[in-house]
Amino acid sequence: MVSFEVICLLLSLCIASRAVAETKTEIEFARPDGVPLKLDATLIEGKGSFPTIVFVHGGGFTGGDKKGYPKPVYQKLTAAGFNWFSVNYRLSPEYTFPAHTDDVESAVSFIKTNARRFKVDVKRIVLMGPSAGGHLVSFVGAKHKSGNRVAAVVSMFGEHDLINRTKPQTDCAIGGSIRHTESPETCLSDGLKAFLGITEVSPSTAGILHDASPISYVRKGMPHYLLLHGTKDFHVPYEQSVLMRDAMKKAGVPCEIITLEGGGHGGWDNDPSLRTYQDQLLRWLKQTLRLKE
């Protein structure tokens, strides 16, 4: 029979293994065109600098908020000793590309500039985001401004190749379902239209699609990427992650995909068969950032 003293020791070890953190909200990090942009921060208490997640929310480029982050992932990574920043950015249709990516760049710059204040390990900053946020972190990770390079990018079911995404096809993944048509059409969602500031795909808009695609900037020296995607995502096809992975591997840049068989456009934490991605994600982060187990 286990003694009371042993039980107390085990409990104390469990508590000690979980990082203690403090949350600060509504920190202004930029004011483009007079628009205040703010972030929330959960900061690990203690000495030294800590690996850091910069989370960019989804919402189809037209909605969402920094409070809309996945709580189970946030809790797991915070307990593992990661700082967590969740940032806002300007939304469409009022603002179009590249306002959104510029704002993510501003957040990274602000966090790096204040690294000592926030106890951020600038060599272990990871961009992470789902859906529209997945596109934005993928873009900024690939085409970052001087001084804004991060160590890694985690893109969850994001768009990567807008040329491929909008090419004429008979099956379009839009609005949560596959739409079948007799003749080819372009798969251009309302969110992408608002984000790009276009109403149709044509030779005149091809340049915008190219410039807004993360895959256009794949090159040697990029951060390591982890892509997470469900095989039954009817908003952003699984193929989008495959295209990005293949392009990065061709360029000699590490990129992996965690494939969630039967997974849709998020909602994975509610399915016991899918939520194992959380542990896979944490393992990848520790290996990529060379953190001690």
Helix content: 25-40%
Distance between the termini: 30 Å
* Domain count: 1
Mean pLDDT: 90
What tags apply to this protein structure?
alpha/beta; Rossmann fold; two-stranded antiparallel sheet; 25% strand; globular
Please tell me about this protein's structure:
With 293 residues, the chain is an alpha/beta fold. The chain has a single domain, classed as Rossmann fold (3-Layer(aba) Sandwich). The protein has ten helices and ten strands. Strands 1-2-4-3-5-6-9-10 form an eight-stranded mixed sheet, with helices on both faces. Strands 7-8 form a two-stranded antiparallel sheet. Helix 3 packs across helix 5 (132-142). The chain starts with a helix and ends with a helix.
Blueprint (SSEs and pairs):
Elements: H1 4-17, E1 21-30, E2 37-44, E3 50-56, H2 71-79, E4 83-87, H3 99-113, H4 115-118, E5 120-130, H5 132-142, E6 152-156, H6 162-165, E7 169-174, E8 177-185, H7 190-196, H8 206-211, E9 224-230, H9 239-250, E10 255-260, H10 277-289
Parallel strand pairs: 3-4, 3-5, 5-6, 6-9, 9-10
Antiparallel strand pairs: 1-2, 2-4, 7-8
